[in-house]
Each structure stands twice: as structure tokens, then as C-alpha cells.
Amino acid sequence: MKVRIVSWLFLSFWMGMYHTSAQQAKNQPYNILFIATDDLRTDLGCYGNDLVISPNIDALAQNGTLFERAYCQQALCAPSRISIMTGRRPDQTKSWNLTSPIRRTEDVVTLPEHLKDNGYFTQNIGKIYHNWHQPGHADYPKSWSVEPMLHYGTHNEDVPIMQGEVPEDMGITKWTKIRDVPDTAYYDGRIAENAAAAIDGFAKGPDRPFFLAVGFWKPHLPFNAPKKYWDMYDKNHIPAIYNGAAPQDVPEAALHDSWEFFRGEPNTLNKEETLELRHGYLAAITFMDAQVGKVMDALKRNGLDKNTIVVFWSDHGFQLGEHTMWGKNSNFENDARVPFIISVPKNAQNGKPTRSLAELLDLYPTILDLCGLEQPTGLQGTSLVPILKDPEASVKKAAYTQHPRPAYYKGDPDTMGYSVRTDRWRYTEWLDFKSREIVGRELYDHYYDAEETINLAGEERFQDVVKELHERLETPKIP
User: Fold this and answer.
1) Distance of CA 239 to the CA centre of its chain
2) Does the annotation count 77 as an active-site position?
3) Which of the two residues, 436 and 10, has the higher pLDDT score?
4) Are 330 and 255 in contact, with CB atoms under 8 Å apart?
5) Which of 3, 7, 129, 174 is 20 to 30 A from 326 (CA-CA)?
């Protein structure tokens, strides 16, 4: 009898705690810290790259769900970010280049706009939408409660601003800058400083949930991290390009001329310059990671981590000489696959990565699902909450990425490449933009060829696979 009484008291206590927690969650909606990075591929410690120094992002992965196979919808800043923030694929937003507006149709409701309409204070510090071609692209005041800051400009304008004389540049290429300056000399240092101050303000302000979007500009070119981050790496340990050749039997449309780097000129990089570029990308990642740490420290210092969902994502990946290319703008895995972490307070599954397929498009409905909000019409993603509850769960069988050719165009592109990634395969079709005729195909077997070195689309023995994946490309809305 005594054991039963104790058991009953324990159960009553546990149920009371559960009721209190549920009631608290109901009365105190989640805050959202929405951290974006630019041009970051999965070169992070938490993704298995032991060379990369990324302790703060790695810590976030240990306290959240790391998606090992998450994909952007287009490997270019503006289209990817518009897709994320509107919850629509590029073919619906009609944004495939750097100059498309966010709102082509009247029915678009952005993620921060929807949260703002549902009582959230929404703030943008740094690069969230694309940054340079029109100030109005920040979408204020529809998306944001206050005017965005440090969101507008070009990456080449990110020059050191500091007291005293600026130290000399020790870089040897036009894409690398090595100066012994403080973090706040550059955009990302100031973004972290302002984001931390905003969090301090939220802790003291009215009891209202916030959506704080913090957009870091790195590791995008130029690779100009302060010198101390370069010094963290031994250049003798930086690997050479391991996959520099174009894939066997690849269609011409799949490749590009690395215009972001070479502006139509031939690639004349020598060994030393190539090494410095790869070194600079690592330094830029570690610089950015340090800024993420400052923002997370502010969240914890104010006790807001206990009720704040933290999301970390990159708009697309990057090529560092692989497949003959430098920069983004392709449908290959290095461009399409992105780091993606969602940390929900007190989620029992935190720290367990998932191999379930996900798209950045899914971020919008996932946040609304976690916050208990209804979805606006027009969203094309799928909530990832089932995977947050069970990393073995799956909500979709394929992820989709696309890219036009030429990569930067005026008027209409010549072709559009549509790529589908399943558990095993990446299949891409290149279509004439006007006639929709297929002008090229690619098929890569990720069980045996993770680096996508051999195009199997023309081989007879894989035609059943080609047929199946062709059908998937025609119905990308189906999970």
C-alpha cells in the first residue's frame, strides 16, 4: 500500500509538472532566432569535416536536430532566400536571378510577415533577403516591425572600418584580404554585436514573442576574415582539390565559367593562389562561427534559450574548384546541399542527427507548426516536425533544386536544369526554357559515387531509374 501511495504521489507530481509545462508553453509562445549564412556548404565539424573549426555551430547541432541531407531550391542568393521566406519554389516565385522582387503576386505572405500578423515582434539584422539591387528588397514594413539594419550593400563594400590606421593586407589574390583587425571591423562582427544587443533588449522589453533574423554575410567572397582566423589553420594541412575534373559524359549545361570569380576571363589560378582561396574559405567559416557564438551567448545570458527555437541555415553551397568550378550556380551536390539545424527547447531528440531528406522550403511550415499557427495559402513545403520528434521519420522521398543557364541572364534564360535528389540518386534534366524539350540529362549514384564523377544517364542499364526520376521531376509537390 505504501508503495502504491508513493507511486500515486509521484505520478500526480509528474502530471502536475506536465500540465504546468504545457500551460506555460501555451501562454508563452516560442521565440525564434533565425540564423542565416551565405555560401556555406557543409564544411563544418558537425558535418564530419574535422579540419573546420566551428565549435559554436557544432554546439548548436548537439542541442538540436542536424539535417544531414538538406537542400536549397536554387544555388543563388536571391532565388533561394525568396523561396525560403515565401515558402514557394522558384518556378512559382518566378525568381531565378539576382534582380527579382520578393512579391510578384498579391497573395505572397512572407514568414516574418505572417508571424508579425500573429503578434510577433520581427526584426532583421544582416543579410536575410538579397542585399544590393534595391533597398526596398528588405520588404519593410510588411515583413519587419522595425527597419532592417546591416542588410543592404555589396560584399565588396565590406571593407574594414575601425579606429586608427587599417593594417596592411597580406593577401595575395584579389579575392582574399588578410588584415589584423577586430571582428567588428567587418559586417559580421557588427551584425553579431547588434544582434546581441537586440536580445538584451528583448529580455528587458514587453512580454511579446520575437522573431529575430540574423543574416551573416560570410563565408561569401571576399574571403576577408580577420587575420587571427587565418592563423587558426595550418596551410600545409589544407587538402588539395580532390574532385577537380568535370564528370564523365556530363552535358555542357551542367557546368559554368565561374563568372563570380573570373568575370569571363580564363581561370589562371596557380597552386599558391588556389591554396589561399581554400584557406580563406575556412577562415571565413570560423570567423562567422565565432559571431554565431556571440549571439548564442546573449540568448543564454538572458535566459531566453529556454523558450527560443534556433534555426541555422545556409542559402546554398559552394564549389572550391570541384568539377572545374568556383562559386555556386549549379545543381551538383556541393551547391545544392546545405547545413541545416533546428533546435527546439527541451526536445528529447536533440543531439540526434537525421538522414531524412529536407528542403529549405520546409522551414516556413515547420516554424508555423512548432508555434501552433495556421499556414497561409500557397506554401509548397512540408513540416519537418515529425522528424524533430523522431529522426528516423521521413516526410518526403525527394528534394528538388533547379538552376538556369546562363547562370546570370537578362530577359529569359536559355535552359533550366531541374534536379531531384532521392535517397540514392541525383537526377537532373536540362530543358530548353521555351520549348521545354530535354537537351541534357545527368544521373549520379550516391551509393557509389558521392562526388558525382560519372554521369550514368546514358547507360542502358539505368533507364528504369531515369524513367522513375523523370516522373518525380514532373510532380515535385508530392512528398
Assistant:
1) 24
2) yes
3) 436
4) yes
5) 129
Distance CA 210, CA 112 (A): 10
Candidates 447, 395, 404; CA nearest to 426 is 447
Tens of pLDDT, residue by residue over 68-116, are: 999 999 999 999 999 999 999 999 999 999 988 888 877 899 999 999 9
What's the pTM? 0.93
Residue 458 lies inside a defined structural domain of this protein:
no
Choice among 72, 77, 323, 403 that is catalytic = 77
C-alpha cell at 425: 540518386
Contact 356, 342 (CB under 8 A): no
- The residue segments making up the domain with residue 139 are 29-397
Whether 229 is covered by a domain: the verdict is: yes
Q: Which three cell numbers stand for residue 122?
A: 520581427
C-alpha 331/C-alpha 75 separation (Å) is: 7
What pLDDT score does 2 carry? 36
Length of the chain: 479
Show the cell assigned to 172: 595575395
| The Cα angle at residue 282 between residues 279 and 284, in degrees rounded to 5 | 110
Residue 443 in domain: no
How far is Cα 284 from Cα 294, in angstroms, rounded to an integer? Answer: 16
CATH code of the domain covering residue 350: 3.40.720.10
Helices (H), 142-270: 187-204, 227-230, 259-262
Question: What is the strand order of the sheet 438-445 is part of?
Answer: 399-405, 415-421, 425-432, 438-445
Q: What's the total number of domains in the chain? A: 1
β-pair type (210-219, 31-38): parallel
| pLDDT tens per residue, range 403-450 | 999 999 988 999 999 999 999 999 999 999 999 999 999 999 999 999
Q: Which of 114, 130, 155, 256 is catalytic?
A: 130
Task: State the residue for C-alpha cell 566551428.
Answer: 54
Q: What is the predicted pLDDT for the residue at 204?
A: 93
User: Is 46 a catalytic site residue?
Assistant: no
Q: Which three cell numbers stand for residue 222?
A: 571576399
d(Cα 23, Cα 44) in Å, to the nearest integer? 38
* Cis ω for the linkage preceding 101 (within 30 of 0): no
Specify if 157 maps to a domain: yes
Percent of the residues in the chain that have a pLDDT greater than 70, as a whole number: 92
